Amino acid sequence: MPVTRRRTAGTMLAASLLVLGLAACGSGEEDAAADSGQAADKQITVYSGRNEQLVKPLLDKFTEQTGIAVNARYANTAQLAAQLVEEGDKSPADVFFAQDAGALGTVAKRGMFSTLSEETTAKVPATYRAGNGQWVGVSARARVLAYNADLIQADQLPASVFDLTAPAWKGKVGVAPTNASFQAFVTAIRVQHGDAKAEEFLRGLKDNDPQIRDGNGKILEDVGSGVIPVGLVNHYYLGEIAKEQGTPPDALKVKLHFFPGGDTGALVNVAGVGVLNRAANDPDVQKFVDFLLGTEAQTYFAEQTFEYPVVAGVPGPAYVPALADLAVPQIDLNDLDTLDATVTMIKNSGLVP
Amino acid sequence: MRRLAPRPALLAASTAAVAVALIPLAYLAVRTAEAGWDRIAAELWTERVALLALRSIGLAAVVTTGCVLLGVGTAFLVTRTDLPGRRTFAVLGSLPLAVPTYIAAFSWVSAAPRLEGFWPAALVLTLCSYPYVLLPVAAALRGADPAQEEVSRSLGRSGWQTFTAVTLRQIRPATAAGALLVALYVLADFGAVAILRADTFTRAIFIAFDLGFDRTGALVLSSVLVALTLLLLTGETATRRRGARYAQLGGARRPAPRLSLGAARWPVVAALLGVAGLALGVPAVNLARRLAAGVSRPGALTEVLAAAGNSLTVSLAGAALTMLLALPLGLLASRAPGPLTTVLDRLAYLAHALPGVVIGLSLIFFGINVAYPLYQTHWLLALAYATHFLPLAVGAVVGAAAQSPAGLEEVARSLGRGPWTVLRTVTLPLTLPGIGAGAALVFLAGMKELPATLLLRPTGMNTLATELWTSTAVGAYAAAAPYAALLVLISAVPTWLLVARSGLLDKENLA
Amino acid sequence: MSDVVLSGVVKRYGRVTALAGADVSVPSGQLTAVLGPSGCGKTTLLRCLAGFERIDGGEIRIDGDRVAGGGRHVPTHRRNIAVVPQEGALFPHLSVADNVGYGLDRAARRSDRVEQVLALVGLAGYGARMPHQLSGGQQQRVAVARALAPRPSVVLLDEPFSALDAGLRAGLRQDVREALRADGATGVLVTHDQGEALSVADKVVVLRDGRVVQAAAPTTVYREPVDPWVAGFVGDAVLLPAVVEQGAARTALGVVPVAGPVTDGPVTVLVRPEQVRFTAGPGAVTATVLRHDFHGHDALVGLRLADGTRITARILDGAAPLSPGGEVSVQVDGAARAFPRDTAVGLPASTVVELAA
């Protein structure tokens, strides 16, 4: 009797779903986030907009050395910023570890961060931290032009990022305009060359039939496979691809071109941390920030995530020029009013919906 | 139907369920009001918003049409023709439910890197969501009374005329219900439109977060999605009013005669295999290729299993909670139809088209301000799923309630059994399979859900979807592949049950 | 053994009054048919009796206990009744035996009561089957057995045979009546089929517009209907205007004796078609044959009288050659029933003398 059997199966499914589901909820209570709000309780809660695969080994190392447990919450940086703002004073977070200075600025503007000690901020060059001490960069990434060495010869590479709007590059440039790093880059153009130049560049880029991708990783993948000859990305994605393919970065077809001579195309952005007000006096949190700015963590960023260290004396990743040799444009990454105008400009350019 | 006595308990429970579904709307209202009229006007009265709205509606229309054609067509082929391998095709046609759009879209982009924009997104979304139409329509086709078709043929209508004039009308309520779910799903989907860069409202909302860290702007945009949803609901309600709901109430069911495909059978088999290849083969091949090409590997087996366990746990909890809320609402809708019931039922759908990130933020708002003890626990995540997926469950309960008509319960009462005994011995045994189908749909949606899960999960808890996100975000595709495969495999189990439930695996369907 | 009494029961749905003070008494151990056209309130009456609906006035007593009315509403499951609905409504997930045993307590389920009632309805040995494996008639028999099993005070049958084809229906309703009688059960049968009501019931209650118009034994309702409407509703009727003089009515069919005491004056008389005989005796009148419908066991002959009145006659010798246009002599056999003239208005459409059976 097929009908009966089907009914029985369905009934059992429904019943077991209910029972299991409710049991699951019950067990969930024990997992409720432990409140690490008390000072020196050997626990901190970190909202990490940086990827778990990239930073978890580092956080484990911290716990190993200090005995301080890290409750890490991983998500998209921008959405974590929105979450923090929504949580307000009741946020269980002690530290916001963000991919991007803009996200740190958003939370800082709400007055949710405590001011870091000068002792801490002094370790990092002024370019890579907030002027008011609300957050500090812990690693840096350079904007680069990735290119496929089979398709583009080194002598064909543009001297400036602005050359990419020339007809020679029509349909050949990969960009990820929805990425926060692109927005920082446009801000840098505005600061260095004014709004008119920035708008002209965006219009030129748009008219040059760019290859738009959802993220830097996808651009690099397509440059590697020869679908796109060149693409504007952050430098460390090359390291990630090499790691996934199990080859040294030098062996890849994708090469990185650092725009020379202080060109805006060589902007350096940071990933950084801010300490939330409730953890202002938590020595555990202070230890965590100090750890991130310590030699071991800085070396980890250079070797494992292929980023630039921001603390003097730690060597950078092997396959890229030293940070000191890059001519980095000077802009305030924290300036939110600037950010709003940039976003409007990018939206108006038609590069994003 | 005879008007039933008012049911205060049912009404109260239904109102509570609807209140849960309206949490995101309350949140949107609060935050939009904060923005102020000037800001709202500046955000919304732009050509860009008009274009986005048109594209979103266009995408929803194209995908829904595609799903109706593909879903009704496949349903007809597997239930009413002598197609070889009908059961296999019924399963193949339903399995795309187990494939998240972000996996499908990513596979397509990997296969054809220049694929982007409206039509590719429409293709991927259609391939992923046509089972939402196929399953209810197949069940309706099996349940429909063949006598009506015979009458039509006897009155001189051709096979095709009968199909359009009688059969399509018989299955219209099922088709409309499935189509509504598809349309709302398309409005809310982020995975496919982001990866394939189709410029829709939901993508614009995510970009507003990512590009400008602009929560207010994103939320103001979201309110337009609610308006679009209202539009869709009004349309669907209108079709409901014109077409009565059909239910098969007991009696001996006579299977409809099967149409012989004749010479067309092998081309039809090839076409169905083609669809299955596009919907299932492309992702499968891509996963295998990624696994072979990369050297990254997922964490220890224990981590993979823990993620699978967490996915199961939160999805089951979400399904259970959602069904608990959906039961009174579905029973009310089927037993005491009326204007009030219709309004409650429609309200439950309003948040269904909101993107996961907005659902996530609204539950954060709710957790922080109303239910702090639940914040960042499984409970709040389960509640988020209930908020988001309630319509999937309510539809199933309404269908299930038809399996236990009020007349049966009256007979049971007349035989001296009290209300609770009747519930236990008659109503539940008859409705549980349908309720199970609803739970399976919610479970599937929960397994695949990512944005709200990222925002609401207990700190430190990973699910298959979040692990997949973590790995792909750093290009560790080989590490991601096992999570993706496990996600699809686990999701295939409830999908199988849904197919079985629709009767497509019965022996009579083999004959 | 029990009595069911409904007194002045009122039930309204919004502005529609379904029952406008219905009085019905159901004698114990008998089958009472509630007969009426659709919309007369008969199903509402059954639902009120079952407790599915709350009544708005009057009261209902079962075995002398008030179960509804006067602020009291005993829920269905405490009324000791059992319903047999139109489509049987067997529980599709339970076997025949489990369906029949549904209303029984644990001990009774283990006794032979289930098998006993199944035998009563002619389905001994069917206990293990599932409902969908039964024919429509068998399903209906199981529904009856299920209702009988717990020995309720009253079994309520809601048009239980209407979904079945004619041949099956006649056999089944006699079997059900026998089963009820053999079990000593009290039954209420709601139906719109006068043949069904007259043939199986011990008592017929005719309902119109929410009110009882007549309640009596089947023969009484047929032979002595209280008004022309009932006359036409319970069977084919020839209604003729007439004038009564000294106990006999002068009609277009000749002079017909009138049953019962009637005052002289204008009346409407009821003649059943089977009372119209083809004879050429004294007092016979001439009629023209309009048509002849042969039914095997009898035939209906349409006639036009000299004054143009059309009537129907039922003749047993159905094969007799009667060609349309021919002339015959007819006469009324037995007494006619007379009604005051003004009650003839508002006849239901079906009572206009029609040939179709």
Automatic annotation (TrEMBL), chain B:
Membrane topology: Multi-pass membrane protein
Domain ABC transmembrane type-1 stretches: 53-234, 308-498
CDD domains hit by this protein: TM_PBP2
Family assignment from sequence similarity: Belongs to the binding-protein-dependent transport system permease family.
Name listed for the protein in its UniProt record: Iron ABC transporter permease
UniProt GO BP: transmembrane transport
CC terms in the record's Gene Ontology section: plasma membrane
InterPro entries linked: MetI-like (IPR000515), MetI-like_sf (IPR035906)
Organism annotation: Micromonospora radicis
Keywords: Cell inner membrane, Cell membrane, Membrane, Transmembrane, Transmembrane helix, Transport
Subcellular location: Cell inner membrane; Cell membrane
Superkingdom of origin organism: Bacteria
Matching Gene3D superfamilies: MetI-like
Record PROSITE patterns: ABC_TM1
UniProtKB/TrEMBL annotation, chain C:
Keyword ATP-binding: yes
SMART domains: AAA
GO cellular component: ATP-binding cassette (ABC) transporter complex
Lineage: superkingdom: Bacteria
Keywords assigned: ATP-binding, Cell membrane, Ion transport, Iron, Iron transport, Membrane, Nucleotide-binding, Transport
GO MF assignments: ABC-type ferric iron transporter activity; ABC-type quaternary ammonium compound transporting activity; ATP binding; ATP hydrolysis activity
Enzyme class: translocase
Domain ABC transporter, residue spans: 4-234
Pfam families: ABC_tran, TOBE_2
Matching InterPro entries: AAA+_ATPase (IPR003593), ABC_SmlMolc_Importer (IPR050093), ABC_transporter-like_ATP-bd (IPR003439), ABC_transporter-like_CS (IPR017871), ABC_transpr_FbpC (IPR015853), Mo/tungstate-bd_C_term_dom (IPR008995), P-loop_NTPase (IPR027417), Transp-assoc_OB_typ2 (IPR013611)
Known EC number: 7.6.2.9
Keyword Lipid metabolism applies: no
Name of this chain's protein: ABC-type quaternary amine transporter
UniProt organism field: Micromonospora radicis
